[in-house]
Design brief:
With 42 residues, this protein is mostly helical. It has 1 helix and no strands. 0% of the residues are buried.
């Protein structure tokens, strides 16, 4: 990564393990949301 004081991290600091877990959870939740919308259309 890089250090740039103009770029602010949502959690205050970069933590690759935590950040990867956060991304995975956000993707899972979006997939679940899309799945539920598709089920409602059936």
């Amino acid at each position: 990564a890089f250090d740039d004081e103009d770029v602010i991290h949502v959690d205050g600091e970069v933590n690759p393990v935590r950040d990867l877990e956060t991304i995975g959870e956000e993707l899972r939740l979006k997939d679940e949301e899309q799945l539920l919308q598709n089920i409602e259309k059936l």
